[in-house]
């Protein structure tokens, strides 16, 4: 293969991997809002709102306050942004491929970030003083269940592959 073909091929690879997390994850994220009981009116500090259960697409870079209102009962909590392992892995792909521009694009777009907690859940039987801890615990319980399910699926796939090899 001549040098004349290698350079354009490498350039094409670098251009397609630039901003990898931005391409695969996007600069916005769907944040889900639930409440017990359902039917609470949700208002974010960003100006958007809905009635539970619902979801709103929000910029990955935006941390915000959310208010759940059910009649006169009101609960407020804070949704933060944290670096995501999925986003970090996609950005690492940029770095390995030499796409420093892609790393900058991902950082600027917020594609490496996730909202926490997501889903955002409010239980109106929990007092306001404990609501942030309750929402965070709900989020972590869901994440743990998802991770355990994923680990079981991977173990089953591995066992199936090993069985085929025998």
TrEMBL record:
Superkingdom per UniProt: Bacteria
Signal peptide annotation: 1-21
Keywords associated with the record: Signal
Keyword Signal: yes
Listed PROSITE patterns: PROKAR_LIPOPROTEIN (PS51257)
Protein name: Lipoprotein
Organism this protein belongs to: Roseovarius indicus
């Amino acid at each position: 293969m001549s040098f004349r073909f290698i350079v354009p091929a490498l350039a094409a690879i670098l251009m397609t991997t630039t901003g990898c997390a931005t391409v695969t994850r996007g600069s916005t994220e769907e944040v889900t809002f639930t409440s017990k009981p359902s039917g609470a009116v949700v208002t974010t500090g960003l100006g958007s709102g809905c009635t539970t259960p619902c979801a709103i697409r929000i910029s990955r870079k935006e941390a915000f306050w959310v208010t759940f209102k059910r009649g006169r009962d009101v609960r407020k909590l804070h949704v933060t942004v944290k670096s995501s392992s999925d986003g970090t892995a996609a950005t690492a792909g940029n770095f390995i491929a030499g796409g420093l521009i892609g790393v900058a694009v991902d950082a600027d777009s917020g594609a490496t970030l996730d909202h926490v907690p997501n889903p955002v859940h409010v239980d109106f039987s929990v007092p306001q003083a404990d609501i942030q801890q309750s929402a965070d615990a709900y989020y972590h319980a869901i994440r743990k269940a998802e991770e355990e399910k994923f680990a079981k699926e991977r173990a089953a796939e591995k066992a199936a592959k090993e069985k085929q090899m025998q």
